[in-house]
Amino acid sequence: MFRYERPQKGRMREFYQYGIELVGELDQLDYLQTILFAKKILDTFNFDCVLNINWLGNFASRKCW
After folding, report:
1. Contact of 23 with 31, CB cutoff 8 Å
2. 32: domain range?
3. Is the Cβ–Cβ distance between 14 and 2 less than 8 Å?
4. Residue 65 three-state SS
């Protein structure tokens, strides 16, 4: 994946992004398990990275947005 950026000498523009999606009737424990799973993978391979967590919301909250 590439993001838009003004090219500068010595700057790398490529980065990697992975995602996990949960489908169906879920509760907060399902989300927690997914986050802990991702953290465990990152820790296992000693990746130097930042784990960003985002939420798309539900239909009502997206409608207000």
Report:
1. no
2. 1-65
3. yes
4. coil
- To which residue do tokens 């489908």 refer? 23
Q: List, for residues 20-58, the tens digit of each pLDDT value.
A: 888 888 788 988 898 899 889 889 999 887 777 777 778
Confirm if 5 and 13 have CB atoms less than 8 A apart: yes
Q: Mapped to the 3 state alphabet, what secondary structure does 1-64 carry?
A: CECCCCCCCCCCCECCCCCCCCCCCCCHHHHHHHHHHHHHHHHHCCCCCCCCCCCCCCHHHHHH
Please give the tally of structural domains in the chain: 1
Backbone angles phi, psi at 28, to 5 degrees: -60, -30
**What is the distance between the alpha carbons of residues 51 and 53, in angstroms, rounded to a whole number?**
6
User: Residue 50: exposed, middle, or buried by beta-carbon count in 10 A (0-12, 13-18, 19+)?
Assistant: exposed
